[in-house]
Amino acid sequence: MGQFLQQLINGIQIGSIYALIALGYTMVYGIVRLINFAHADIFMFGAYMGFFLAPVMAKIFGGAFIPTIIAAMLITGLLGFIMEKLAYRPLRYKSRLSALITALGVSIFLENFCAMPFVFGPTYRAFPSMIVARNITIPGNLGLVISNVLLLDVGVSVSLMVLLFWFVNKTLMGKQMRAVSFDKPTASLMGINIDVVISTAFIVGPALAGAGGILYGTTYGMLASPFLGIWPGMKAFIAAVLGGIGNIPGAVLGAYVMGISEAFATSVNSNLGYGIAFVILIAILLIRPSGLLGKFVPEKV
Amino acid sequence: MTFLRTHRTITTIIAFVLLYAVFKVLYLTGILNTYYIQLIILVGINIVMTVSLGMVNGFTGQFSIGHAGFMAVGAYTSAMITTTWLHVSTANPWVGYPVFVLSLLAGGLLAAGVGYLVGAPSLRLKGDYLAIVTLSANELIHAILNATEAVGGPRGLGGIPKFTNLEVVFVFAIVSVALMRNYLFSSPGRSMKAVRDSEIAAESTGINTTKQKVFVFVFSAFFAGVSGGVFAHLLQFIDPSSFTFVKSLEYLIYLYVGGAMSISGAIVGPVIFTLLPELMRSLQSWRMVIYPLILILTMIFRTEGIMGLKEFSFILIPQRQRKEVSA
């Protein structure tokens, strides 16, 4: 029982990070119907920004965590904006496949460019510890251990999610986003500036991924290489599909399901952690392709 | 006109034999050393990989991005058969080559089986699910190979007999491309293009789109598997890191820069990209930075790739005969 709860807690921790990445995938997919492969690399970029900014921020502000996460979010948001402007906008009215190929190109470009020795370098880096890790043992005979980093991960990601829900459901821009995601041509006839909406999605999504990158660095204490985004990115995307791609609460639910099942699989066998994501993906495509919270939309001809 | 058609076929065959003879003579006279011959063999393997990827991505309009995974399945299967299980060697070609060919087919069939497992669930659906499924399948195959001690784990599999030579790759590339080209110009091949152009319209004319997509995908995985086997018996050493997603991406770049909607494009792409880096050795470390940029720029400025919809004349079915068919 104690083991079970402990894995559940670990799953919630990793799920919180996946959720921040999955939200960006699902928002962009909802609005431009594009799998933004480069999203995983923006997550990586955010993590590296944490690595470079944390010492600077610690010097300026004393405490490093909050200024670093805000700065990283701003930078990754800017990167997302530039990426959309340069690579995806010229292809908006060409075939969907060419945008997808471009997304893949952008992803590989970011990975390999960042791996160049004069950018981030291909080697392992220790992430600066901004929070002194402390383990809190929960009283009782279950022997549960919760670290303050875990509370921080969950806290930051839940507050960002609440912020996002408020943004999407209560602000004018959020309303426009939902309209564009529902029906792009009609939305533009209603006077919504599609370009602005798409740019916003490409700022907000990457900013969340940047925050996820900082949490990832803080949790694991190291950055393996600029290719570190691939697996978390893939799992987060599968989480978005699991919850119903284009559906914001779905992405969060999918991410937690993914994180928890991964924690359990890893506790059985460390290699199983990779396989479980694939099994979930195939299972959801076979059983319920529209996702847990997605609606089945019949095709009209 | 049967005569014209045969005539064209004969000309094409003579051209290929001449091409082979030129390479062989250049090799025997010492103008091309073993390294260049190896490069030419690689071009042949890459052509088959790219054309088979083009069957799915270019002609059926799906988006498979894990082709190296199928290559890995074929490479490991055929290398295990020839090296670990049957211990054949080039010293005894009369036993060696039949075993080699059978091991290639076994590798291709296993890759096709994996292709079915990956393709069937995702191709039922419209949308881009195939992309993410093939991507994760590629990474998963890589992870499995890394974790399996029986195939050498991360250390790889060595001591594979060198069965692949210029002759093998010539026959292999020509036969494979001819098979795929014939499929493309057949009736199911045309329904494949119909699926690409409009899935709804294709369905309403009675094409079973799911079956068509799955078949092409499995067919393409088969050729990727066989290419993997040929590749393993060329390098004599394979390890999981030769078949990562980066490898798949290279084929995507060959395909889309060459021109995904034409077989000729899928031939031009790998020729350029296999030979070009050799001329610019100094840029080697920049390769994976420059390649994706080329891909992005191609998509923005020439979406249809170098060849567009054009085909070399030896790929096309002769004009006369086509008129007969349409009349």
UniProtKB/TrEMBL annotation, chain A:
Primary location recorded for the protein, binned into one broad class: membrane
Keywords for the protein's UniProt record, in alphabetical order: Amino-acid transport, Cell inner membrane, Cell membrane, Membrane, Transmembrane, Transmembrane helix, Transport
Any one of the GO BP annotations: L-isoleucine import across plasma membrane
GO molecular function: L-isoleucine transmembrane transporter activity; L-leucine transmembrane transporter activity; L-phenylalanine transmembrane transporter activity; L-valine transmembrane transporter activity
One cellular component term from this protein's GO annotations in UniProt: plasma membrane
Keyword Membrane: yes
Coiled coil segments of this chain: none
Localization in the cell: Cell membrane
InterPro entries per UniProt: ABC_transp_permease, BCAA_transport_permease
Keyword set includes Cell membrane: yes
Record field: transmembrane: 12-32, 39-58, 64-87, 99-120, 140-168, 189-216, 236-260, 272-291
Membrane topology field: Multi-pass membrane protein
Family: Belongs to the binding-protein-dependent transport system permease family. LivHM subfamily.
Protein name per UniProt: Branched-chain amino acid ABC transporter permease
Organismal lineage: Bacteria, Pseudomonadati, Caldisericota/Cryosericota group, Candidatus Cryosericota, Candidatus Cryosericia
UniProtKB/TrEMBL annotation, chain B:
Keywords from the named record: Cell membrane, Membrane, Transmembrane, Transmembrane helix
Transmembrane segments: 12-29, 35-56, 68-88, 94-117, 168-184, 214-238, 253-276, 288-309
GO MF entry, a single one: branched-chain amino acid transmembrane transporter activity
Location(s), subcellular: Cell membrane
Membrane topology: Multi-pass membrane protein
Entry GO terms, CC: plasma membrane
Full protein name: Branched-chain amino acid ABC transporter permease
Organism this protein belongs to: Candidatus Cryosericum hinesii
